Amino acid sequence: MQVFKYVHKLQQIITEQRQSGKTIGFVPTMGALHAGHLALIRAALQQCDYVVCSIFVNPTQFNDATDLEKYPRTVAADFQKLYAVECHAIFLPEVDEIYPEPAPILPPLEFGQLTQVLEGAHRAGHFAGVVQVVHRLLDIVRPDYLYMGQKDYQQQAIIGAMLTQLSSTIQLITAPTVREKDGLAMSSRNTRLTAQQRQLAPLLHQVLSGVKTDITQQSIEHVERAAQQQLTDAGFVVDYLSVVDGTTLQAIEVFEDAKSVVVVVAASLGDIRLIDNLIIS
Ligand code: AMP
Predict the structure, then answer these.
(1) Which of 196, 198, 237, 249 sits in a 20 to 30 Å window from 190, CA-based?
(2) 8 Å CB contact between 239 and 205
(3) Whose alpha carbon is nearest atom 11 of ligand 1?
(4) By the 8 A CB rule, do 49 and 14 touch?
(5) Given a cut of 90, is residue 105 above it in pLDDT?
C-alpha cells in the first residue's frame, strides 16, 4: 500500500498506472473509516486495477466550527483497515495541498434546487464545500470510477449532476448503505453517541422502514407527520423527514410506484446530527 501526502507524487504513480493500461478507482473519505467506507473500497477493488482512497477532513464543507473540531480522526486505525483490504494507495493531503494559493478556479456549475433543499437548507454552504473538494480531488486523481455511498443520498445526487454538467467521463458508482445489525447506518459520527443515544439511534431506520410500508396506504403528509412525531417523542430533534423524488429531491405529494422515491431524514440526538435515507421505489 502506497501512502501519498503530495499531489505531484500521487499523480506520478497514477500516470504510470494509466500508461500501463490500468483502470483507476477513487474513494474519497474524511477518515474514521468503518465498514461502510470499506464496502466502497472493496467495490472499487473488484472493478478497478488501482484504487486510491483519500482521507481529508475538508474544512470548507463544515458550516459548524465545533463539528469540524470534533470530527473523529483515527489515521493509524484507518491505515490498518485499508492495509487489511489491500487498498493500493492512500492520499492523505494537508489543507494547503488541496487548496493552494491562488485557489484553483471552479468552472461555473448550476445545481438549482438540488443544493438548496434538505441538507442544503439546514447546512449553509455545505454543498459548495463538497462540490469544491470533490472537484479538486477528481482533478488530482482523474479516476475512471468514483465510489460514493447512498448514505449521503443528496451528496451523490449533486456529484452526479456535477459530472453530467462537466461532460465528465468519470463514472459514479453509488453503493448501498452499510448498517449495524440493529439497522443504524454506519457513520463516523456514531462513535460520538453516548451509550443511551446509541440505543435510541436505530429508531431512525425503523421509522424510515415504517414510512416505506405506510406510504402505500396513507397520505404522504400523514405518514411524514407521524414519523416525525415518533422521532420527536423518542428524544430526537428532527430537521426534516421527507418523502422526495429520487432525482430532483423535491417533495412529492402523491406516491406513485413507478417513480424514483426516497425517504430522507436528518435528526439530532444531543449535538450529534445523524442522516439516513431509504429508497422506497
Ligand atoms: P465520509 O467519510 O463520511 O465523507 O464518507 C465517505 C464516503 O463513504 C461517502 O461517499 C459516504 O456516502 C460513504 N459512506 C459513509 N457511510 C456509509 C455507509 N454506512 N454505507 C455506505 N457508504 C457510506
Answers:
(1) 249
(2) no
(3) 149
(4) no
(5) no
Pairing of strands 171-175, 145-149: parallel
Compute the distance from residue 38 Cα to the ligand 1 centre, in Å.
9
> How does DSSP classify residue 184?
P
Find the residues whose C-beta lies inside 6 A of ligand 1. Answer: 29-30, 36-37, 39-40, 148-149, 151-152, 175, 177-178, 185-188
Of the listed 37, 88, 126, 135, which one is catalytic?
A: 37
- Which grid cell is 120? 442544503
Specify burial of residue 254 (Cβ count, 10 A radius: 0-12, 13-18, 19+): exposed
The b/e string for 67-98 (b: 16+ C-beta within 10 A; e otherwise) is: eeeebeebeeebbebbeebebbbbbbbeeebb
Query: What does residue 143 show for φ and ψ, rounded to 5 degrees?
Result: -80, 165
Query: How is residue 190 written as a grid cell?
Result: 456514531
Q: Which residues contact 266 (CB under 8 A, 6 or more apart)?
A: 118, 119, 122, 238, 239, 240, 273, 274, 275
Angle CA 163–167–169, to nearest 5: 75
pLDDT at 156 over 90: yes
Among 75, 113, 67, 110, CA closest to 91: 75
Q: Is 37 a catalytic residue?
A: yes
What's the DSSP call for residue 107? Answer: P
Q: What is the mean pLDDT of residues 263-278?
A: 97
Q: Report the mean per-residue pLDDT for the chain.
A: 97
Report, as an integer, the average pLDDT of 167-172. Answer: 98
Q: pTM for this structure?
A: 0.97
pLDDT at residue 257, rounded to an integer? 79
